[in-house]
Amino acid sequence: MAKKRPAAGGKREKRPKEKKPGASRKPAAKFRPQRLSKQVRPEREEDGPHSWFLSQIEATYFGLTEGEAAPGVVAEAAAGAAARSSFRSVYRPGARAEVLATPDAVVWVERLSEYKRRKASAVTRSAAFALAGPPGPFVPGARNWAALGPMMVLQGQTVGEEPVGGRVAGIAVAPGGLRVYAAAACGGVFRSDDGGTTWRSLMDAFDVDPVNFASTSLACGAIAIDPADPDRIYVGTGEGDTHAMFLSRIVNALPAYRGIGPIRSDDGGANWLSETTAAGSPGLAGEAFFALAVDPTNRENVIAATTAGLYQRAPNSGAFEWRRRRPDVHSSVVVAETGGSLRFFAAKWGGDVLQSTDGETWTGAGTGFPTGIGRIALGVRRADPSRLYALVATTAGALQGVYRLDGGGGAWKRIASPPNILPGGSQGDYDLAIAVDPNDSDLVYLGGSYANATPWPGSVWRSRVQSTATGLKFAGSASIGTHAHADVHVLVPTPNDSNELWCGCDGGVFLNRAARTVGQFAGVNNGLACLCSNFISQHPTDPNILFTGLQDNGTARTSGGSAWTHVGYGDGGYCLVNWADPNRVLTFANGKVNRSTTGGTSHSGWSEVWSFGWATMTQPIVSMPYNAGAATEAEWVAVGAGNLVYVSRDFAGTWPMQFALPGGAAAGSVFALAFASTSRIFIGTTRGRVFRADRTGTTWTVSRLDDVAAGGLPISGLITDVAVDWSVTTNDCLYVAFGGMGDRRHVWRFDGVRWEARSGTTAVDWLLDVEHNALAVDAAAAGNVYVGADIGVWHSSDGGLHWEPLQNGLPDAPVFDLQIHPTQRLLRAATHGRGVFEIAL
Q1: Which residues lie closer than 8 Å to 250 by C-beta, 6 or more apart?
Q2: Which of 62, 108, 650, 805 lies in disulfide reach of 58, CB 3.0 to 4.6 Å?
């Protein structure tokens, strides 16, 4: 059973050194596998996010239409049209943003709210509720999900193989450096009380109060605390760093999930409250946060830089609400105070740096700031508002320059000779961070994408600013980030401590305890269980052995326990264990299929055996389902690449068979695969087409199924998964799942003749209108079907006629993959932001 989802991309495609960047990006029809004779050292990719994520990744906001032949498509809303004017659809060649759904900003709030009501209702109807009381993360007597990790990944993708976690967008450090909070891009907020030695999630009360889902706002963009009382926490939900990808609708390769607005805790994260937006101000639900700045003299006064504008938390009739003070995207906000003199500084994406003494009234800061630019990150020493730094990217994401403003006025000064924090000439819209030493306003730290060192680790630089006869320049810049992970999103010094510097990046949290001198970062990720798992594979008889492909953290393996081990580089996608010979393992990363013959237990023993080109960020690798009585069936493997399918019968040793989907570009790219037998494969594509391929000898005959005359699929969109209905012995029945939105009918069944919606029948048992990413059909229990969605895992016991959320213990992170263990009766789920979970069937 196949799982198909574009893997969340990292930075660089790890290519063979002898190949030029982009060499394998051929048109789909021209893809041919290339045999590699030996393992080669990975090389960085010079292109930026828009090339790694590939323009066909339109999944979430691709509008579900009334079928491919329907004359109309989802209309493009006027709001935001200019921001998407350069969009070009690959799912529908020649089309532009009219193919995209344009949901209301509050759609995520509404879907979460509906999910919580359904979840509470399902528990109330269970016998366990009478014994256990209100639903909690674990309900005695009921089935509960259990976390399998990774709590962290050992031997990660850094110099020195530091332990890594998942993508972190924000860090808040209390005075003394022991209390630290980390806001994960898709995993919620974590807390450490021992200086990063251990972490615990603050978002695990997700079932305690089903109607209050503030604690389930796992997509985070910013976090800040009251420095005098670190129990007061502010979090901005929705990740600002992926804003540029979101605008282009290049999502779900590196998913750009928006939030439900600001949330607050008054007790160190034990409880969370949603905060409201003022009447007349555009709402922050469906938006994203870049930064938060708390007034050190009044913790109720907070400024937020968001995708909807610059907001201030202000009093209103004894309560507080968020009011928009300036429109347009603002990518940074900082605050400094000394001797009663308070100053906020904020930056608008594309230009304009502003200042305010109260957060309500804003004026321009300085003159001569550059124009025609992209993202801006600001840095200031908390006790010195007289010296402000701006780290500026170009519209293409390259480094434009670093500037300084002295005294709050006058002309901005460009600082000469900045370090090369963005060596690929891109990614400044995703990776841009600056911090100033808390005791030295001339010492700054700059963060960007990656360093020019294998395996392309973090770009963090220590630089001193000097005055010369001709102006300012950086002197003695030193790269200090190679022991950290790449893609630096935030740099935070411990308050008043010039030695400790914290880094949040795609690999979690890293700490440098001697940043001013010769210190190196170390991974402090134990318990930071926010890794973005894309796909999983499992040992056929030992349930403790699992593999998972991770966003920008390669492939990881466990043989039991919550700490997994990094075994493969790149952007981890599909992984596949040979169920007849578990020493043989396949993985996909950045256009390459990698093979191990030693169980995939470490970095050694792997070889890059095939290059299929790169049509999507992950390309499906599937095999025949487990069958202990037919070991030779485990040798069969199929890989999708563009509009071609390659088939091997010696577990990727050779590829003697291949076939193209009929229809050329109109068919789309292969996105979902499933073997029904060694002579039958089902295929789903990015264009909403479904095919059946039947083999005679080494020849495959392909038939289209979505347009059958007896009753074709009445909607069209991205097919995210296909799964065989094993209750029918003729192997001609299957289920498909749709991504996109605009129609609740995300799961359909084909009975061999016609299609029927299997997404529920009434409001109490239908599926939510969110992207559905993975299917699992229980071969041992007829009629039992499971689907993983952007909100929840859902179960049907009657073939999809009625659905309930499979509740208790599963965080509200998007579910990208579902697998049923073939011998142990366990359902495993890969979540994008909280790792892997399992539940007994």
Answers
A1: 49, 50, 53, 54, 55, 57, 58
A2: 62
CA nearest 249: which of 393, 426, 97? 97
Tokens (6 digits) for 123: 């528990």
pLDDT tens profile 640-690: 988 899 999 999 999 999 999 999 888 988 999 999 999 999 999 988 999
Contact between 292 and 303 (Cβ < 8 Å): yes
Inter-CA distances, 335 with 224, 295, 302, 332, Å: 11, 7, 10, 11
- Within a domain: 818: yes
User: Nearest-CA neighbor of 747 among 779, 780, 725?
Assistant: 725
Pick from 590, 584, 700: nearest CA to 646: 700
pLDDT at 784: 96
pLDDT at residue number 683: 98
Could you give the 3-state DSSP secondary structure of residue 71?
A: coil
Q: End of a domain among 471, 506, 523?
A: 523
| Residue 216: C-alpha distances to residues 114, 135, 171, 219, 806 (Å) | 13, 15, 19, 9, 16
Secondary structure element (H or E) that encloses residue 311, with its range: strand 309-316
| Amino acid at site 374 | G
Please state the φ and ψ torsions of residue 472, each to the nearest 5 degrees.
-100, 150
- The answer to whether residues 485 and 585 belong to one domain is no
Residue labelled with tokens 């289920």 = 735
What CATH number corresponds to the domain at position 701? 2.130.10.10
CB 220 within 8 A of CB 236: yes
Q: For residues 726-745, b (16+ Cβ closer than 10 Å) or e, as one string?
A: beeeebbbbbbbbbbbbbbb
Element (H, E) at 415: strand 413-416
Q: Which residues contact 599 (CB under 8 A, 6 or more apart)?
A: 582, 583, 585, 605
Residue 131, SS3 per DSSP: helix
pLDDT of residue 79: 30
Question: Of 150, 156, 152, whose CA–CA distance to 567 is shortest?
Answer: 156
How far is the C-alpha of 463 from the C-alpha of 490, rounded, in Å? 16
Q: Does 556 share its domain with 487?
A: no
Contact, 485 vs 498, CB < 8 A? no
Phi first, then psi: give them for residue 107, nearest 5 degrees. -60, -40
Q: Does one domain contain both 591 and 501? A: no
Rg (CA), the chain: 26
Beta strands at 747-750 and 755-757: parallel, antiparallel or unpaired: antiparallel
Domain endpoint, select from 473, 492, 523: 523
Written as six digits, the tokens of 355 are 């200042």
Spans in the chain with pLDDT lower than 50: 1-61, 68-85, 126-136, 206-216, 249-253
Write out pLDDT tens, residues 425-436. Answer: 889 999 999 999
Cβ neighbors of 421 (< 8 A, separation 6 or more) are 399, 446, 447, 448, 449, 459, 461
Q: Indicate the pairing of strand 785-789 with strand 772-777.
A: antiparallel
Length reported for the chain: 841
Taking 3-state DSSP, the helix, strand and coil percentages for the chain, each rounded to the nearest 5, stand at: 5, 40, 50
| pLDDT of amino acid 629 | 94
**403 lies in which domain range?**
151-523
Q: For residues 807 and 804, what is the distance between their CA atoms, to the nearest angstrom? A: 8
What is the rounded CA–CA span in Å between residue 189 and residue 173? Answer: 13
Tokens, residue 519: 């210190």
Q: What is the pLDDT of residues 731-753, one digit of tens each?
A: 999 999 998 877 889 999 999 99
Beta bridge partners, 264, equal 234, 273
* β-strand pairing of 152-154 with 563-568: parallel
Residue 510 inside a domain? The answer is yes
**Among candidate residues 393, 515, 388, 478, the one with its CA nearest the CA of residue 442:** 388
Check residue 124 and give its pLDDT. Answer: 53
- For tokens 């170390």, the residue is 522
How far is residue 447's CA from residue 504's CA, in Å, rounded to a whole number?
10
